[in-house]
Specification:
The chain is mainly alpha-helical. It is about 60% helix and about 5% strand. The strands form three sheets. It has a two-stranded antiparallel sheet. A two-stranded parallel sheet has the order 3-4.
Length: about 450
């Protein structure tokens, strides 16, 4: 197999060296971008009279045929060719003959692969963001459908205060909105056209890099040829965004897994996303969500792999940088699968009202409301907190209910207690008192849902 650089060498490289350095097994994912980038490059070479226009057109026509074969699934990759660039170059030569040899004019595989990977990242960011939007819309629909449900929220996995379920869903939407923002910030970093930087120094040929950038839809052209071929910050930024997104999906999964346990028994996850046990016939395991949770570690390791690979590299291009692609592709494909699962999750979750009613029948969930009640009566925060703390210790911890106490018994804890306290010991009242901006009062939540729905579109 003739290599693009083979004329310099006196003999062939060893088989083990070929196998060790080959990247075609994974960088074939970039083939479509390699061809599209090559089409724009060939058009520029003809426009600038660097190669004859007829040969430019012949190259473009040949590349378009290869692209059609690639898109139809009939393009055959040669595993003996070391990388995607060599595969496309060799296939083009078979298609159009010697004219193909002019295509690599004024470019290097260094700037070529930088172009391909940036184009890939831009596309995949749009795809992932689109999937997040679908999930957000499903969460909004779920929140609206279940807008009247009140649930206990937790801190330290201990019951804390009452909130609307829809308010809880809004927290997920905030997380996902930040994830989209991070992806689009990463896309801005990707949106720089490196082709024409060649190996590292640019070229003496009269190329038009801005023409190529316009053809390929890039907003910017790289300012420095050395940085253009050695920069992989945009990959780090994308991987960082994917790590945080995966952590959010893991945290949501953990909530749903806990809520679906017999101990909590708040929701029922659809059978289509669960599996059974080979030995215990009664089991219904939330395996898909568990695997979402477990996949986070692999995505974090993908980021670590690229960080560590880059940390000691001198400028400009080094072959180590070939190793940025497998972690990137792995992280993207794992997140893509995770988002696919989450597109289904909120479509069919059912609320289990029996256990939920039981959990709401807990006066400790009103403790902050009672503190604020006393503050409104003129009691200092410290005294109010102490009074309610003693009430919890002497009443709730002994299995009694605050709502069962008479006013005279309440006054043992604070003289400010009156009959109107009993009005607070109601889940709806508790929730709707939280009218501060961003709080769980229903009027707030309905406005917030409309706002986020408008923002998502």
């Amino acid at each position: 197999m003739k290599k693009l650089w083979g004329s310099r060498f006196k003999g062939a490289t060893s088989k083990i060296a070929d196998e060790f350095t080959s990247s075609i097994s994974f960088d074939k994912r970039l083939a479509v971008y390699d061809i599209i980038g090559s089409i724009a490059h060939a058009q520029m070479l003809g426009k600038c009279a660097i190669i004859p226009k007829l040969e430019s057109k012949k190259i473009v026509a040949g590349l378009e045929k290869l692209l059609a074969r690639l898109e139809s699934g009939t393009f055959k990759f040669d595993v003996q060719a070391e990388d995607v660039h060599t595969n496309i170059q060799n296939a083009l030569k078979k298609e159009i003959g010697a004219s193909a040899d002019r295509l690599h004019t004024a470019r290097s595989r260094n700037d070529q692969v930088a172009l391909d990977i940036r184009m890939y990242c831009k596309d995949i960011i749009d795809s992932l963001a689109g999937q997040i939007v679908i999930i957000e819309k499903n969460i909004i629909a779920f929140a609206k459908k279940n807008s009247d449900y009140i649930i206990p929220a937790y801190t330290h996995l201990q019951p804390a205060q009452l909130v609307l379920l829809s308010h809880y869903m809004l927290a997920y939407l905030e997380m996902l909105e930040r994830d989209k923002e991070r992806l689009f910030i990463a896309k801005e970093s990707c949106d720089v056209m490196p082709l024409g930087s060649c190996a590292l120094a640019g070229t003496g040929l009269p190329i038009d890099r801005f023409f190529v950038a316009k053809k390929l839809g890039f907003k910017k052209v790289s300012d420095n040829s050395i940085d253009a071929v050695s920069d992989r910050d945009f990959i780090l930024e994308l991987l960082s965004a994917l790590v945080i997104l995966s952590i959010h999906l893991s945290r949501i999964s953990e909530d749903l897994i806990i809520w679906s346990t017999k101990e909590f028994d708040l929701i029922d996850i659809d059978w289509s996303l669960c599996t059974g046990s080979s030995i215990m016939p009664h089991k219904k395991n939330p395996d898909c969500l568990e695997l979402v949770r477990g996949s986070c570690g692999k995505i974090q390791s993908d980021l670590s792999a690229v960080l560590i690979m880059l940390k000691g590299l001198p400028l400009s291009y080094n072959r180590d940088m070939q190793l940025d692609k497998e972690p990137l592709f792995d992280a993207v494909e794992r997140v893509d699968q995770m988002l696919g699962i989450f597109q289904e999750v909120f479509k069919a979750i059912k609320i289990k009202t029996g256990k939920l009613k039981e959990k709401l029948n807990d006066d400790s969930l009103f403790s902050v409301d009672i503190v604020e009640y006393l503050i409104a009566k003129g009691v200092s925060y410290r005294d109010a907190h102490d009074a309610v703390g003693k009430m919890v210790r002497d009443v709730l911890d002994k299995g009694k209910r605050i709502s069962d106490l008479k006013v005279v018994e309440l006054k043992k804890f604070s003289q400010a207690f009156e009959n109107d306290l009993y009005n607070l010991l109601d889940p709806k009242v508790s929730v709707n008192r939280k009218k501060s901006f961003g709080g769980t009062a229903k009027i707030n939540v309905l406005k917030a849902l409309k706002k986020v729905e408008k923002r998502i579109g």
